[in-house]
Structures are given as structure tokens and as C-alpha cells.
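User: Second chain of the day. Same drill as before.
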Amino acid sequence: MEDRSGARARAFGELSVTNTGGRGTVYDYGAQVTAWTPEGERPVVWLSEQAVFTPGTAIRGGVPICFPWFGGGPNGDLTPAHGFARISPWRRMTVGEAADATTVTHHLDMTSAHAPQFPHAYRARATARFSNTLTTSLRVENTGDQAFTFEAALHTYLAVGDATHLSIDGLVGSEYLDQVTGEHAVQLGPVVIDGEVDRVYRSSSPVVVIDRSWGRRITVVKSGSASTVVWNPWVDKAKRLSDFGDDEWRGLVCVETANVKEDAVTLEPGQAHEMSAVLAVERL
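Assistant: Same format as last time:
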């Protein structure tokens, strides 16, 4: 009899990759990366032990693709949260394999995933390249005859030793919206996790997570992204999330490559936009 993990792998289109650079996992469901571990390192991409693999439900952790809106959208009233892309089956197009890298591409378009709130003709391509670095990208093309505006994010969950013992560099001087308090502010020093953090920064700069507990530095280099989102649920919110262990908040921080809110992208017919993030790890 097939075990639960085997049934899940088949139903959600699991693809596990291994090369000399490292190993990882990506699903056709959501075109979502759920694991990446460089050779000789601890895991860098975090996945909740309570993650739910159910059609129509987002997978908690990994690199969910938020599209065509972020959160509840510009006015906060759109569902599902973070758009339909992360809960849709994507079509796996190519798997390119080399000794030190594996590249997987997925496609999604209006014929396979749409919503009344986004009645536009589009074509999306997600790419994940697993090596001693991890590159994820999202390309969106307007295939219709009218302009449209969309939000998007590569909602990357990074695995850390202890969220309370890290700092995040690269955002000093950036304006941000604190989605916990509703206030706007400017980042005056490194970002630290000392409570619930949910901030949308207007920044295209690289970000560095300095993880003192595990003695490493995770660098996120972005392209085509004008927003950076930093998130950690802290104690109380973690307890309210059904697909999240009560104490799991300590083991992660989200650094999201995004174009959201004022940085939403408008595409004229025939235009395309691509954003990407490259993750790399080095020892302190």
C-alpha cells in the first residue's frame, strides 16, 4: 500500500533534485519550492512540520508564489489571501539537469487559473534553479488586449537557528509600512525580531540575514523587485495558525522578494515583467 508521503508526492507533483551543489524539492502545486539545502550546510528553506497538503490550501513554508495580489490586495478584501497562484496546479515544462545545477520551469495561464477579481489574460512562468545557490523567479506576461496591474511576491521562508538571535542588514534608510501597527516608518538600524514583525519595505537592495545561532550569513540578491517584505509571526500569532507549530516561529524569518502596494506592476498588452531572488550562504 502506498504511504501518505507517496500519495502526496504523486497528487501534488513532487520533484526532488540532487546535484553536487546541493538538494531541494519543488512541487507542481503552486510551482512551490519547499526545500533547499546546499552541500555541507543545514537547510536554508524552511517548511512547517504542520504544513497541510490539501487542494485549495496553501503549503506553509518554502517559497510560495503570491500572484496576482498580495495579502488581501490593495483594499484588503480579495480572496484567497495572496492570490490564486500558490494554490493552483502549474504545468511543469522543463527539467534541465547538470552536474552542479538543476533548473525546473513551470507555466500558468488564464485557462488553468483565474479569478473574477483578476479577469485578465496572462501567462506566468516560474523558474527554480537548485545549486550551491537557489534562484527563484517569476515572469508575468500580458497576453490580452488591455492593461492590467498585479502584485507578486516570492514569499521565501528562511530557516534560522533562533529568530531572536539574528539581524537583517540592507534595509537601513528604507521606508516601510508596519502591517502590525499600521504605521509608516524608516528603518534606522538592522532589523531584529523582538516581537511580531510584518513589514513592507520600499527597497530593491540586497538583504543579508546574519544568523548567529547557526554561524552563517544568508544573502538575498533581488532583481526586478521594488519591495521587500520581512515577516515573523512571534508567539501569539503562531499559536493562532493551524498549520504552524506553536514554537516554530523561532526557526524562521521570511524575507520576501516582491512588488506590492505602491510598487505593484502595470503591464500593457504584450509587455512582460520578471523578478528574481538569488539565495546564497556563507559561514560567519
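The radius of gyration is 18 Å.

User: Great, on to the next one.
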